[in-house]
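C-alpha cells in:
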C-alpha cells in the first residue's frame, strides 16, 4: 500500500473527527458517517484498519448511551401481603428484563397468579377481594369492586408533628 497524499490525510482526519463528534452526540455509525460526508462502508473499513479508531468510536457510543439513559424515579417502599390471592401460597418477588420487579405465586406454574403491582396488606373492606398498590404507590385499588384508597401521609411536618399513622 502506498502512502496517501497529505491533503487526503487531512480529509480523512476531518471525517474521523466529524464522525467521532456525531457518535458522542448519540448518532449511529451510519448517521456518523453521513455527518462526516463519507459512506458507512468507508468508516467501517477505516475501523477495521485502525484499532484505535474502532475503540474511540465504540467508547463515544457508550458514553452517549450512558448520557441518554436517565435513572427511573424511585417508588416509595410499601408494605405488601405475602400470600397468593388464588391459592394462599407464599408470594415471591422476581425480576423481569430491565430489572423491573414483579410478584408471582411461589407455586408457579401450578398457580398462574402474577402481578406487576404488590398486593396491599389488607383485603378490600367492601368486597373482601385482594387490593393492589398503584404503579406510583400512592393509592390502593381493589380489582373486584374498583374501590380506590389514597395512601395516608406519614412522616413529620414542618412543625415537627407526626403525620398519618
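Residues out:
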Amino acid at each position: 500500500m502506498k502512502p496517501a497524499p497529505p491533503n487526503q490525510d487531512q480529509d480523512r482526519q476531518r471525517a474521523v473527527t466529524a464522525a467521532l463528534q456525531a457518535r458522542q452526540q448519540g448518532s449511529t455509525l451510519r448517521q456518523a458517517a453521513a455527518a462526516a460526508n463519507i459512506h458507512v462502508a468507508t468508516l467501517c473499513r477505516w475501523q477495521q484498519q485502525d484499532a484505535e479508531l474502532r475503540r474511540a468510536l465504540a467508547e463515544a457510543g457508550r458514553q452517549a448511551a450512558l448520557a441518554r439513559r436517565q435513572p427511573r424515579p424511585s417508588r416509595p417502599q410499601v408494605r405488601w401481603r405475602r400470600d397468593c390471592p388464588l391459592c394462599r401460597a407464599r408470594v415471591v418477588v422476581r425480576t423481569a428484563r430491565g430489572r423491573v420487579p414483579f410478584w408471582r405465586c411461589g407455586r408457579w406454574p401450578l398457580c398462574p397468579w402474577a402481578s406487576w403491582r404488590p398486593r396491599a396488606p389488607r383485603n378490600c373492606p367492601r368486597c373482601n377481594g385482594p387490593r393492589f398498590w398503584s404503579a406510583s404507590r400512592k393509592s390502593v385499588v381493589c380489582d373486584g369492586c374498583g374501590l380506590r384508597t389514597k395512601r395516608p401521609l406519614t412522616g413529620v411536618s414542618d412543625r415537627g408533628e407526626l403525620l398519618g399513622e
